[in-house]
Amino acid sequence: MIETGALRAEWTKFSSVRATMVLSLATVTVSGLFGWLFANAAATGYATATTQERLDFQPLLMAGRGMFIVQLLISALGVLVASSEYGSGTMRASLAAVGRRGSLLAAKAGLTALTALPVSVASVWLMFTTGQSTLAVSGAPYAMPGDPAALQMLLLGPVVLTLISLFGLALGFLLRGTAAAANVSTAFLLVPVLAGSAPGFLRDLLSTYWPTGAAFQAVTGTSELSPVVSYGVLVGFVAVMLVAAFVQFKNRDA
User: How many domains, in total, are found in the chain?
Assistant: First the structure.
């Protein structure tokens, strides 16, 4: 159970840290920028594509590639919710005010989800709008918001990004430092992107079953797994990370 008073206190701390507010705004801005950049590149390629390449063209995948970059920012947002207190030395004061470590972690997780979700919604919808508009203006195939695949991206994409922010929060508690947690988060999240250079079997394994890769493939409609399994892998992974963060936070001095 998340205590209302603790949640309000977390919001006060979150809104008073300039980095978190700037990062939230930057995440939305970058989403629109990369939606346009990737869609523009895809439209340029479509103009000179072969017949088969045009048949294989996937507008959601082409314009949604920016999510692989946006996830780094939304994860860093979660990292800051925990690591900023370790960096400023206020974690002990927060514990004294709340009284229970589980309640403090729950409040931070609730605050992370409640702030990351609207940021994620704005980011995904802006990326979709700029991307598909760019494709349409350029004469390439594009998706409409009412299309089933587009609806899945618009509704579940923000949920995936919010889960990734909770992964960042868990890393912030586990590693207790912004730089260390952000670096580990970046390396972990980029594995599916870099998997293309791995040998065949390893490439297929990483791109299909890596927690964030599986979820993003489901969002863009390119997953070989069922949606339940694709999203379930990420949900289970984030749950394990939060439990690990709680165990360390409970048994280690603040």
Answer: 1
**Start-to-end C-alpha separation, the chain:** 22
Distance CA 33, CA 24 (A): 15
Alpha carbon distance 111, 79 (integer Å): 12
Helix H segments across 99-177?
101-137, 148-175
Helix, strand and coil content of the chain, in percent to the nearest 5, comes to: 85, 0, 15
DSSP state of 132: H
Q: Give, in order, the Cα–Cα distances in Å from 33 to each of 16, 117, 133.
A: 27, 20, 13
Predicted model pTM? 0.92
d(CA 153, CA 128): 9
pLDDT, tens digit (0-9, with 9 covering 90-100), for 178-233 = 999 999 999 999 988 887 777 777 877 887 889 998 898 888 877 888 889 999 99
Number of Cβ within 10 Å of residue 252's Cβ equals 11
Q: Residue 59 belongs to what domain range?
A: 4-251
Residue (of 122, 124, 129) closest to 36 by Cα position: 129
What is the identity of the amino acid at 107? Answer: A
